[in-house]
Amino acid sequence: MKMQYDIQGNPDFGEVTVRLEPGENIYSESGAMTRMSANTEVERKVIGGMLKGLFRKATTGESLYVGNFSNQQGGEVSFAPSMPGTVMHRKMTGDEFYLTAGSFLACTPDVNLSTQFGGMKAMFSKEGVFLIKASGNGDLFFNSYGGIIERDLNGPFTVDNAHVVAWEPTLDYKITGMGNLKSTFLSGEGLVMKFNGHGKIYLQTRTVPALVDRLSPLLRP
């Protein structure tokens, strides 16, 4: 059965409303629910078990528990990310999909979430050391900070790592500097992700680190 959903508010304040038929349920990032129909039941769940959940929380910053929403009479539930931006949907059909930390919003139960090491250079990147790997079958909802730019790549492509939201596994990537060590750290650009191959990549027009840098001087006494 195909889950019915409606995404509104893009690109600035995206949210998704899901129609739950009797017997259907959906998982969401903790705190993402904004409203729901009467008689909707919510319980806490750890995707993949406690050990995998603890590892995912420690490495990606995602919540240990997700909300598990169901309604025996049928109803609606809406989810929105914590930062203003765009909400996207991807239909998983036994394939894999990679998300950067903080991009997961919700998924149906047959979608599996796990973590993957991003490489040693990822330790110095703005998006953290570990990535979220989604796999399986079902509906996956993810989000950006700011608008999302969807690109179909067929060859090399370079992007600041903080602007990457998600990509397909047919794309290879490496994390590197803008040039030599001096230009990397003095240019202010930091590390970039160099992709190659054929597949989709999703980029965000704004970044949380840039917002923090802008606001930090205003918060000093």
Quick rundown:
The chain is mainly β.
Q: Any overview of this molecule?
A:
The protein is mainly beta. It is about 15% helix and about 50% strand. The protein has helices at about 50-60, 180-185, 210-220, and strands at about 5-10, 15-20, 25-30, 35, 40-45, 65-70, 75-80, 85-100, 105, 110-115, 130-145, 150-155, 155-160, 165, 170-175, 190-205. A hairpin with a 6-residue loop joins strand 1 (about 5-10) and strand 2 (about 15-20). It is globular, with a radius of gyration of 18 Å.
Which structural traits does this protein have?
12-stranded antiparallel β-sheet, globular, mainly beta, 13% helix, single chain, 4-stranded antiparallel β-sheet, 49% strand, 221 residues
Largest sheet: 12 strands, antiparallel
What share of the residues does DSSP label as strand, in percent? over 45%
Helix content: 10-25%
Give the rounded overall mean pLDDT: 84
The arrangement of helices and strands along the chain is EEEEEHEEEEEEEEEEHEH
Structural class assignment: mainly beta
Alpha-carbon distance between the termini? 56 Å
Number of strands: 16
How many H/I helices?
Answer: 3
Tell me the overall shape. globular
Query: Uncertain runs with pLDDT below 50, 5 residues or more?
Result: 120-126, 184-188
Rg over CA atoms, rounded to whole Å, is 18 Å
